[in-house]
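Consider this today:
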Amino acid sequence: IIYSKLALLSDDELLKAGWFETKLSIKNTEEHYKLNIFGHDLSCFNNNDNELILFSTGSYAPIHEGHIFSWISSIEVALKNNFDVKLFLISPSHDDYILTKSKEHKNYDIFTRIKLIEDALISFFYKYLQYICYQNLFKIYLFESIHSSVAINFSEVLEYILISIEKFSLTKIKIGYVFGSDNFDFYKPFLGETRFLSFCVNRGKVNLENKINANNLFFIENLNIDAAKISSTQLRDSFEINNETTKGTQYFVREDCNFAI
C-alpha cells in the first residue's frame, strides 16, 4: 500500500524526504514474523479500531529532548482525537546507513545509540514528571537496526509492524508514523489510508498553518518549540563521544543544553 503511494512521488520528492534505495524485501523475513519483537505484553490490546501503535524512525545520533517532546506531542494529539495509544516504538536506523553518512557519525554505532536512547528516556521522565504517565509506552524496536541485515526505509518498518501484529490476530489496530517537519513529504503515502496515520511534528522550519488535515493526517506543534529546534547535527558538531573517557560513565540529559550525552 505504502509502496504504491510512493511510486506516485517524483525522484526529487523522495530525495527531499530522505528516501534511499534498500536491498531488503519484506517477503524475505518470514522467519521473524512469529516473534513478539515488540518486547511488549500484547495482552493489553483488545483489537479495537481506536487502538493505536505509534512509531518513529531516525538516526538518533544523538537523541535529544526535541525527539522525545515530539513523540509526546503526537501521543497527546492522538489521545485528544480519541485514539487509545497502546505502544510507541522507537526504531533507530541501521549502522550501514548511519556509520557511512559522515565522519561525525563514526562513534554512534547501534549499541551506543540504544544506550543513549534508554538513558535519555529515563532522564527525561525524571526531569519532566508531568509526562511520567507515558513512560511505559516507549519501547526500542530492533527490527530495523538489529534484525535486518541491511538499511531499510520507514515503510518497510511499517509493513513489518503490520504483519507482526496480524500474526497475533490484531487486525484492527491502527499504526501511526511520527516524523519531523524537515521530512514533511513523508505524509504523502498516508493520504486516503484508513489504518495508517501520520503525525508531522513541527521542528520550527515549516509553517504548518492551513495544511491539509484529514482523519489520518495530523500536522502538530511540538510541546516544546525550543527543543524542537535542536538538531543532532548541531550536537555532533559541538561534541564527540570518546569511548575511553566515557566508559562506565552515566549518560544523562543536560538541563542547560537539552541533549543526551
Q: What stands out?
A: The beta strands are 51-58, 84-92, 138-140, 174-180, 196-201, 217-220, 253-254, 259-260.
